[in-house]
Amino acid sequence: MIKGFNHKLEQQPAPAFFVRGPSSFARLAFFSALSIALIATDSRLQYLTALRQDLVALLQPLQTVANAPAQLYRNTDEYFTAHHNLLNQNRQFKQQLLKQDAALQRLSTLMLENEHLRNLLQANKALEESSIVGEIVHIGRDPFTKKVIVNRGDNDHVVAGAAVVDAVGVIGQVTRTYSGSSEVTLITDTSLAIPIQVERNGLRAIAFGHGRDQTLDLPFLPANVDIRRGDVLVTSGIDGVYPAGLKVASVTEVKISADSPFARIVGVPTGGVENHSQVLLVSLAHSEMWEGDEVITTPKASTKKTRVKPAPATNNPSKIHAPQ
Amino acid sequence: MHPSKLQSLCLSLLIAYIAILLPWSGIGLTLRPDFLLLVIIFWMIRAPNLCNIGTAWGVGLLMDLASGGVFGQYALAYTIAAFFAATYQRRLVLFNHYQQLLYVFLLLLTSQISLLVLKMFTGSQPAGWQYFLPSISGVLLWRIALMLGLKTGARSSGA
Q1: Which of A27, A38, A206, B3 is the most buried (most CB within 10 A)?
Q2: Which of A17, A20, A25, A27 to mutate to test the interface with B (most CBs of B within 10 A)?
Q3: Which residues of B touch A69 (CB under 8 A)?
Q4: Closest by alpha carbon to B111, among B87, B133, B136, B135?
């Protein structure tokens, strides 16, 4: 009888209050170690890139669900837009088209002339670029980095390293591609550097993102550098990432202090980094065109900080300046 | 064990994750509370046998995926917050609503501070004070949830 009673006692499961498994400290140690291992692997080695791409592809349906309300709002908003608004817009676009058509006509003759001259000089042909229009799906969720997600990815042949521009200037560079979307690091991000040229005098330099506020820095330029407030900075095109001649920023501040050999130069991006939704992803043709010549590969950006800087010359920015 | 509870745990995590995935921008992004961590804390208080530090770690990985940052950052931050949640879980029944709010606030802050430290290690720019706003909005959300009748195991302040 007593034996049976004991047996019964043993059969009873312990109350859930006491069932805890390993102590919480052991769990903390285990999972912390696991996290730190993951952080180290992901930030220093490239093993997890493919895994991340697959997982993001799995997340796509959830993302679609999450985007649905905003999409619905936008669609209904568009649907109810007043008639005369559309007419006005249409008229505007027509005028714009006319102007641009005229400019384009001149451009085509110029291009022909340019090609002819290049042939005469036996210079390399300028790189041809392929481009694709994308839409910004959402702003990156990490407050520490300046990133946006664009709805074009591997399926549309977007490659990491492609430049991203809008109608008024450079926005950034594709740093990671997924199957249906890609991650664009903005030029204001600290990890991105962009080779630029002052439009007024052709001086070359490198602009670095400033991170917190929407500005770019031009470090390591001597105090007597010929850059003034209001100068327009355009891409120089020597990096093989950004097509030459796109507007990047305009200089807003040039400060020269007696205690530093370098000038402090700050620019504000001309591209609507934060306020456009349509962007153009431009990837320069790769080195196949350059056969016979020295092979110049387009540097691909990656998540690694040191590799994001596009031009090899970034290792020593001070070497790039035009001779003073 | 409690199939219904397990279902609601998964469902609430899914909803919180979709809330994170919403296209936040501008002020919304600055203020966005950490829905996933709030749900994790809630379940660690309500059902510690279902939701433990391991769950928090897994959910942190999902958050890493959504944020696009280095894998393991959110996972570690959530693990640390969940550790403190687990340590003081039994004491929590003695807390009233306001003490519980403070406790939740401290947990949110813990995860944010650990994330900040990790980000600094991986070479990010220091963020401004606005960085800590999600903790405050998170606590406000918790308060609203309490007012709407969510039972978080705390004694009502009148009792």
Answers
A1: A206
A2: A27
A3: 22
A4: B135
Q: What is the pLDDT of residues A223-237, one digit of tens each?
A: 888 888 989 999 888
Q: Contacts of residue B124 in chain A, CB cutoff 8 Å?
A: 144-145, 190, 211
Question: How far is Cα A162 from Cα A280, in angstroms, rounded to an integer?
Answer: 10
Task: Give the tens place of pLDDT for each residue, A68-97.
Answer: 888 888 788 777 777 788 888 899 999 999
CA distances A172 to A13, A14, A176, A248, Å, are: 60, 59, 12, 10
CB atoms A66 and B83 under 8 Å: no
- Separation of alpha carbons B77 and B116, rounded Å: 9
Least CB–CB distance from B66: residue in A139, A141, A176: A141
pLDDT value of residue A58: 86
Fill in the DSSP letter of residue A319: G
The distance from CA B38 to its chain's CA centroid, rounded to whole angstroms, is: 3
Q: Do B71 and A183 touch (CB under 8 A)?
A: no
Whole-number Cα distances in Å, A55 to A118, A184, A265, B13, B118: 48, 18, 42, 17, 23
Q: B62 near B17, Cβ under 8 Å?
A: yes
Output Rg (C-alpha) for chain B, integer angstroms. Answer: 15
Chosen from A142, A150, A175, A217 to mutate, greatest number of chain B CBs within 10 A = A142
pTM, two decimal places: 0.73
Please report how the helices B133-147 and B97-121 are oriented relative to each other, as an axis angle in degrees rounded to 10: 150
Q: Give chain A's radius of gyration (CA, Å).
A: 27
Query: Sign of the CA dihedral A299, A300, A306, A311?
Result: positive
Judge: A142–B67 Cβ closer than 8 Å, yes or no: yes
Q: So what's the ipTM on this one?
A: 0.85
Question: For residue A29, how many other CB atoms are within 10 A of its CB?
Answer: 15
Domain boundaries, chain B: 3-21+33-147
Write the DSSP assignment of A18-80 as a string of letters: T---S-HHHHHHHHHHHHHHHHHHHHH--TTHHHHHHHHHHHHHHHHHHHHHHHHHHHHHHHT
Place domain A127-319 in its CATH homologous superfamily.
Answer: Rod shape-determining protein MreC, domain 1 (2.40.10.340)
A92-107 CB burial, b ≥16 within 10 A, e <16: eeeeeeeeeeeeeeee
